[in-house]
Amino acid sequence: MTEAIPAAPSCADDHDPMSLTVQDALARILANVAPVCSPEPVPVAATLGRILAADIVSTMNVPAHTNSAMDGYALSGSDIPARGTGELEVIGTAFAGRPYLSTVARGQCVRIMTGAPLPPGTDTVVMQERVGQRGDRIIRIDGNLKAGDNVRQAGEDIREGQTVLAAGRRLMPADIGLIASLGIAEVAVHRPLRVAIFSTGDELRPVDERLGPGDVHDSNRYTLRGMLQRLGAQIKDVGIVRDTPEHTRAAFQAAAAGQDAIISSGGVSVGEADFVKQVLSELGHAEFWKVAMKPGRPLTFGRVRGAVFFGLPGNPVSVMVTFYQFVQPALRRMMGETQGGELRLRATSASRLKKRPGRVEFQRGVLGQDEGGALVVRKTGMQGSGILTSMSHANCFIILPQDCAGVEIGDPVEVQPFAGLI
Ligand code: AMP
Ligand code: MG
Hints:
Layout: H1 22-31, E1 39-43, E2 56-57, E3 67-68, E4 72-75, E5 85-94, E6 108-112, E7 124-127, E8 132-134, E9 138-142, E10 151-152, E11 163-165, H2 173-181, E12 186-190, E13 194-200, E14 204-205, E15 216-217, H3 220-231, E16 234-241, H4 245-256, E17 261-265, H5 275-283, E18 285-290, E19 293-294, E20 298-304, E21 307-312, H6 316-334, E22 345-349, E23 360-369, E24 375-379, H7 389-392, E25 396-400, E26 412-417
Parallel strand pairs: 5-6, 13-16, 13-17, 14-15, 17-21, 19-23, 22-24
Antiparallel strand pairs: 1-12, 2-11, 3-10, 4-6, 4-7, 5-9, 8-9, 18-20, 20-21, 22-26, 23-24, 23-25, 25-26
Helix pairs in contact: 1-6, 3-6, 4-5
The structure holds adenosine monophosphate (AMP) and magnesium ion.
Adenosine monophosphate (AMP) binds next to loops.
């Protein structure tokens, strides 16, 4: 008589009624994290990538003065001839930073450079290429000009009192320039988030040690560090942690001190020496989820003292996928960021993609354009959760929905460009 093999859920199964969907897991995480509110003043030049802690409200008009958009001649619109041509006397010159301050009478004009304030009595600029010259002091214009042409009005970019940038924004180069243009030297931004990381596994060796039988170099702390640096987090590296309750406990204690978040990799899958779960339950609050996704099914979420804890799976691609889908949105919220959703696009698949229904898959792709400019995506070779080159060669995730049963060449697919993930 042959014994039946038990049908317990395993990592190879694609449908598991006990699993959380990706959206549910994310929603639970986001409901359990809040902004770490403690603004600090920072000189505007050092604010790239920081999160604004208060609205930027303009105390002035930009531009501050009505000024010329061209090199030419400033005149009164009432001097534009209705027909034929008219002559104007040139009575002076206005430079950017050296205005012409006297009033310009009818029949007169002022030579003006780009950015120079319009002299009193003028409201229009004629381009220098569009005038005829008679000697040094007289120009001739035609009626091919409207009052107000070639002039930048005071406040046309920003009005005094206007909210220019809202709190919660991650500052981009243009924002920094904008803040500087308002004469603001110091900006209130949220303090950097403090995040501790560690890797679990008896097989892990540091990069500068030789591998023994069965060993692997610890790469997860490097990918985590990279992703966290991009976010602007302050990183505390707790190192490699051996698979024993004592080492795991010591790691959590070191990691929790003074940190906002802790991220570990490895040691959360079923059947493993599961010390992450055990120690987390003992020291804090812990939830263990199976998420209907591939890669990255097992996920641990909890809290140790004041720190939020994310226990990511050990496989190198799973670490990156779960970081981008769950940890990054949570950390961005904790950092006080409120804007900037992630970018998802539709593209045509240039590859056949194997998939079974049951889980959302985050395959790795290279997004590009065909000759006509339309978006096309192809997969990056082998898609195993240990194949880190599949991430390195990719520039996007190809997101295949739970019930998708495979993709043929030419089918539309949804992609999430890495560029949109920060
Ligand atoms: P685990 O989730 O601990 O069972 O690990 C799953 C797989 O990921 C195993 O093959 C581990 O050797 C590998 N792995 C775990 N942690 C790391 C790490 N920090 N760097 C590279 N590979 C790892
Ligand atoms: Mg392990």
